[in-house]
Amino acid sequence: MQRSKNSSNLQPVAEAGPGGPGVSVGGTKSKFQILPYLLVLPTLFFVALFTIWPTISSFVGSFFLQKLNIAKYREPSFAGLANYASLFQDSTFYHVLGNTAFYVIGSVPVSIALGFLFALLINRRMRGIGLARLALFHPTVLPMVSVATIWLFMFTPDYGLFNSALSFLGYRGPENWTGNPDLALIAIIIVAVWKNAGYYMIFYLAGMQSLPREVYEAARLDGSGPINTTVRITLPLLRRTTLFVTTIAFIGAFQTVDHVFVLTVGGPSNASNILLFYLWQIRFENLNVGKASALTIVLIIVLLVFTVSNFLISERRSGNE
Amino acid sequence: MSETGAVRTLPVGRSRLTPGRVVLGVLIAALAVVWAAPIVWAVAASLRPFEYPLGSGNIWFSHRFTLANYFKVGSLAPFGRYFVNTVVVVVMTLAVQIVTSTMAAFAFANYRFKGDRILFQIILIQMMIPTAALLVPNFATIRFLGIYNTRLAIAIPFFGSAFGTFLIRQAFLGIPRSLVDAGVIDGCSWWQLLVHIYLPPSLAAITAFGISSVSFHWNDFLWPLIITSSDQSRTLTAGLVRFTQLGEIGAQWQYLTAATLIVAGPLFIVFLIFQKSFIESFVHSGIK
User: Is B1 contained in some domain?
Assistant: First the structure.
């Protein structure tokens, strides 16, 4: 079903075939009917109230000064670009943007690459393979806050499992991952990778199982080794799966900060603070509603740039096929 | 579209035992063990009597097992209440979503009407701007509606689902037109068409949507956290984070893991029972 996300399926009704009851066939003009509008209305109402309206109201609100902890700014007052100015003069904001970029670039490609690797390994008939698949996939079904609480222990200095494993492998570095400014964000990334790799794996598994077996037979007869076959055949054939997984991984990376809440609370000194967590802080700790609105707009723009560019890439690719 | 929901193990390669296959098997097993270690540890620690604290080199199962930690955790925070709240939120969200999404999907699949394309695209905006990013303005809306700190407030932003509409409409579009026309000729009303012709072959898609919706809302944290202020309406995830931040809990791993598994457990057990449907649904409904 993932393939169905390309544009041709976004047309409301398949071009062939007449409309439904009451819709006349061919070019004749159908009479106006209220029923389809009524059917769409509930969904449209909630989308309008909780997606469209908040986007507009954040945009408007971003031009108003409103700070709930200062009496004279409790009521919003028009302030032009003051919130954006405050945001772009705020060194923490740049720190957070840098962290977010590091987090996304650090977690998304690694999770996807691992997901692909897992799928390659798992996609075979072998005793106990179902159990292995369960082991790799199960973090997907766990709540991120539970995962993070478990990893709180993994990262515990002295006897935490993660450190024990690392020292077994010869690592002699600092042990306090969540409390160390150099390691806190990496700890957050590790948790995200552990949770998501198995999720991306199942898309690759599904993709691999839909690939034509004759191609592999031919490659084998041509003397193509497993690595060559993977790089030259499997990866290119699965590029739409990759594109799709990349899109959901990017959007997911911006929406989930649950592990930040549990593991580091953005610290130490903002070392693991990322966009959505910062937005929460500005609004619910600093009570700066105006600045939070401006930050919401920044977040929306970042998300739209990713989704729209991904969409355009997939359009161009499918156009070439 | 042929790969929909087909995560099976296909016969790849030969099943003879060769050195290559042994190495591969060991590699897969090692990977699985590493990946499963955190959850296995959590189960071990939660079953460990409190009198045997964890320490260096002694973090797995102790020689005695107990469920006491689970009961203790239940007395330290109202996890029963959180559980009920979570179930109410998840069921309410899903029930409304299925009704609204099916209606909208039916309209878009079965009728052509003025503005249908633009309305569909307006709804799809929800897939590009995730609700999580809109927590600030939505918080204001909830305050304005006077439903702050209720279970309804946790669920209501998700009552209209672009994704559900999209997925169910896809399923509806796969139904042969001739079948629909036959229904029309037989004099079916619109809801008879929906119930007798559109819905039966689309149940798989609706189930897939349902499973992904339940998983998402069971695990969701940030929105329930900010929109609740008391245990009256708090869900399991928000309750867990509050619990972990209680001063007296500290690094008492037996309690922390028991609480963690109470939160993750119910959905996880359902997942273990219906593993195949879960994985198929996740593939089927790749977007959350």
Answer: no
Does residue B125 share a domain with residue B98?
yes
The 10s digit of each residue's pLDDT in B202-258 is 998 999 999 999 999 999 999 999 999 999 999 999 999 988 887 666 668 889 999
Please tell me if residue B264 touches chain A, with a CB cutoff of 8 Å: yes
Please indicate, yes or no, whether residues B132 and B252 belong to a single structural domain of this protein: yes
Q: Residues of A with CB below 8 A from B244's CB?
A: 149, 152, 262
User: What distance in Å separates the CA atoms of residue A95 and residue A93, rounded to the nearest whole number?
Assistant: 5
Domains in chain B: how many in total? 2
What's the N-to-C CA distance of chain A in angstroms?
A: 19
What count of residues does chain B have? 288
Chain A, residues 164-203, CB within 8 A of chain B, namely 194, 198-199, 202-203
Q: For residue B4, what pLDDT band results from cuts at 50, 70 and 90?
A: very low
Structure tokens at A11: 């047309």
The highest-level CATH class for domain A66-78+94-320 is mainly alpha
Look up residue A77 and give its DSSP letter. E
In terms of domains, do B222 and B274 share one? yes
Whole-angstrom Cα Rg for chain A = 25
pTM for the whole structure: 0.87
What is the reported pLDDT for B16? Answer: 66
ipTM: 0.88
- Whole domain around residue B68: which residue ranges? 19-74
Task: Say whether pLDDT at B90 is over 90.
Answer: yes
Beta partners for A77? A65
Higher pLDDT, B227 or B20: B227
| Statement to judge: residues B193 and B160 lie in one domain | yes
Q: What sections of chain B are H helices per DSSP? A: 19-46, 68-76, 79-110, 116-128, 135-145, 151-155, 162-173, 177-185, 190-192, 203-219, 222-227, 236-244, 253-273, 275-284
Question: Which residues, including other chains, have CB under 8 Å from residue A142's CB and lie 6 or more apart?
Answer: A195, B39, B219, B264, B268
What is the tens place of the pLDDT at every residue in A232-268? Answer: 888 988 988 898 899 889 989 999 999 999 999 897 9
Q: Cβ contact (<8 Å) for A20 and B32?
A: no
